[in-house]
Amino acid sequence: MAIYHCSMKPISRAKGRSAVASAAYRAAVRLTNERDGLVHDFTRKEGVEHCEIVLPQGVSADWALDRSALWNAAELAEKRKDSRVAREFEIALPHELSAEGRLEAARAFAQDLADRYGAAVDFAIHAPHEASDVRNHHAHVMMTTRQVGEDILGDKTYLERENKWLLSNGLATTDMQLRDIRQSWESIANRQLQKEGLDIRIDHRSHAELGLEIEPTEHMGVHATQMQRRGMAGSRGRLDQDAAQRNAELIREKPEQVLSIITAEKSVFDRHDIARALHRYINDDVQTFQNAFASVMASPALTELQPERIDQATGEVMLARYSTREMVEIESGMIQSAQRMREAHSHGVDRRHVNRAMERQDAAIQAGAGDATARLSDEQRRAIEHITGRQRISAVVGFAGAGKSTMLAAAREAWEAQGYTVHGAALSGKAAEGLEESSGIQSRTLASWSRSWENDRHNLSRGDVFVIDEAGMVGSRQLARFVNEAEARGAKIVLVGDHEQLQAIGAGAPFRAIAEQIGHAELSEIRRQRVDWQREASVAFATHRTAEGLAAYHEHGDIRFSETREDARGEIVRDYLADRDQRPDGTRVAMAHRRADVRAINQAIRSELQDSHRLGRGAEGGELTFQTNDGKRSFAPGDRIVFLENSRDLGVKNGMLGTVQSVEPHAIQVQLDGNA
User: Does pTM top 0.70 for this prediction?
Assistant: First the structure.
C-alpha cells in the first residue's frame, strides 16, 4: 500500500556537507567543487533512474540548468563557515505508480517548490536497492537556499528567513511552511494515483494527529542501511525492531488500528491489503505476522461485504471484499441523510425566476456565439429545472465540456432571484476559482469551509444553497461531513461532477452512490465543441478511450509530427500567424512543455509581427523593456500577455489573459479579456 514519506534536511557546512558533493551523489555524476578543488565522482553509482533541474515558471536562467554551474554558484554565494547551502527533501514515490507516474509526480513536486520559492530545484529518482525493500522507490530533491535569477543566485528564499522576520512581514513560520510542503506532496501524489485509476491514497498527517497509537516505522538513513547490508548492528535498526514488536502487541489488542490506516486509503479492501498494511508495522517473524493477521481478521470492526467466490467465466478466485463498520456507517449514514433531504421539499424556486434566468442565459450564449439560434440545450434546461426544484439535495452528472458551468450560472441567477445565498466549493483551489469564474458562484475549497465551521464561522442556514463542483473526486469521509452539515443547518446541497472522470481522492466513491440513490440530471451532450466528430472524441476522452479520441484528431490532421524540435516550433509559429490573419477577432494560444521552447516561440511570433508592422518595435513603436521574474522582457501595445499570479490589488488572477493597451516607463495598461 502507498506509504507517505516526506522529510527535509539542510545541507550545511557546519555538518561538513557541500551542495556540490550532495548533487554529484544524488545524480551519480562527476562534479568539481570550485570552492575547495575537491572532485566528487559518483559515476559508478547505480540505481539513479532520472535526474533533472527545474526552474520557476517564467524564469529564464539557462545557466542554472547546468548542475556544476548551479551548485558551485550555491557554494560561492555563501561566505560563512556554517552556511546552509541547500535544502534536501526526500520523498517516497508510491511503488504502485508506473515509472512514468513516479517521474511525473516527482517533477510536479520539484516544480511546486521552484514556483513557491523562486529557487532552482535539482531532483533525482532512485530505484530500490537490490538488498532493500523492492518497493522503496524514492526521490532526492535539492533546492537552492537563494532565488535563481537570470545570471546569478539572488536573495534568500522565505524558507531561510528567521521566524521573527517572517512573522513581522505577515508570513508563515518555517514550521508552517514545511507543513504546507508536506501537504503539497500528499496532494501531488494522490492526484497522480488518482490519474492512474488507483484506489489508494497517502496522508501527510502523523499517526498521533490521526488518533492512532500504532508506531510508524522509522525511515532508516543511508548509513544505517549500509551497516545492515554489511551485517553490522545499528541503534536505528534496533529501535525499529523494538517499535515493530510493540506494534505487534498493540495490533493483537487493538486490530482496528490497522483497519483505520487501510480505510484512510480505500473504503473497500481484501485480505492482501490487510497483509500489506501489517508488513509496514511489524517485523518479518512468520508467527508474529500470522498472529497479527488473525487478530485483524477476527476484529469486530471488520465487516465482510462480499464473500470469496469463483468467477464462472474465467475460473479465477475472486477474493472476499471487506470494509469496516465505521466506514459502512459513514457511507450508509450519508445515503440516509441524502434520502431524507430528497424528501424534504423546502427549497423550490418560482418557475418565473427559472424561466427568466434561462432566457438571460440564452441571450448571453447568442451574444457570445454570434448566432441568434444558439441557446441552452434541452439537457441543460432539464438540469436547471432539476436542481432548482424543491428537494434539499440534487445531483448533476456530466462529461467535461457538457455545459455544467453554463447551467450553474443560470441556476445561480434563479436561486438568487428567489432570495437564496449561493455558495460554492471544490476540492482544489484552482477548481474553486474555475467554478466562481464560470458560474459567478463565490467559491472556496472544501478544506477552507471545514476550517471555518470548526471555528464556528460562515455556518450554513436555511437560506443557503451549497454547490460542490467536481464532487466525483471527494472521498466518503469528507463528503459525508458536508452532506451532514447541510442537513443539520437546513441548507440545500447540490453535487455536480462526472463519476466516470476520476477516482475520488479520499477513500470511497460517494458521489456515484448518492447520484444513484436520489436520482440525477445528466449532461451527456458535449457543448464545448460544435463539430460532431470533436464531440465524439470528447466523449471518448471522458470515458477513458484516450487512444480513440487521439486517433480522431489525428485522422482530421489536427495532430502532426515534425522531424525536429525546431521544425515543430516553426510550424506552431506559422499556424499561429495564419490563424491570426484569418480570424483577427478570434482567440488562439501557442503552447509548449519546455520553458525554452515557450520563449523561442514567443520571440519568433513577436519578431514576425514586428517585421510586418503589426506590433511596435523600439521606442518609436511604443515598446519598452522591463525587468520581470522571467528576466528582461519587452512589451508593446498589442502584445498578448497572461498573468501568472493572483493579485487583489490589480484585480487579476493566475491564468487571466489580456492585451497591452499602452506602455509607460513605470506602468503597463492592459485590457483583460472579457472586460469591456
Answer: no
